[in-house]
Amino acid sequence: MQSESKISLVARLKIAEGHLKKVREMVENDSYCIDTLHQSQAVEAALREIDSLILKNHLNTCVVDAIKKGRSNEVIEEVMAVFKRNQK
């Protein structure tokens, strides 16, 4: 993974981790359910952004390299499998 991408990704992971910790604390403290749901949704949004960054990096590095080496079908199937798994 490219250095700049890794730094951004680690920062976003820390944000998601902080949101998740807050959800746990809210559950332990019997916080208002709607507030807890909002915080949980913040975790989901952070994870979606993390997934997007990982995918972008993968496409720009691993997939490009594989296509140059004539393995385009393999990497296309790999990426499609991730999307299919996510749709379940």
Describe this structure in words.
The chain is mainly alpha-helical and 88 residues long. Helices cover 88% and strands 0% of the residues. The protein has 3 helices and no strands. It has helices at 3-28, 33-68, 72-86. The longest helix has 36 residues, at 33-68.
In short:
By secondary structure, the protein is mainly α. 88% of the residues lie in helices and 0% in strands.
Secondary structure topology:
Elements lengths: L2 H26 L4 H36 L3 H15 L2
Helix pairs in contact: 1-2, 2-3
Please give the CATH class. Mainly Alpha
Task: List the quaternary state of the chains.
Answer: single chain
Class based on secondary structure composition and strand pairing: mainly alpha
Output the number of helix runs: 3
How many angstroms does the end-to-end distance come to? Answer: 28 Å
CATH superfamily: Metal-sensitive repressor, helix protomer
Largest sheet: none
The CATH topology corresponds to Methane Monooxygenase Hydroxylase, Chain G, domain 1
Number of strands: 0
In percent terms, what proportion of residues is strand? under 5%
Mean pLDDT: 93
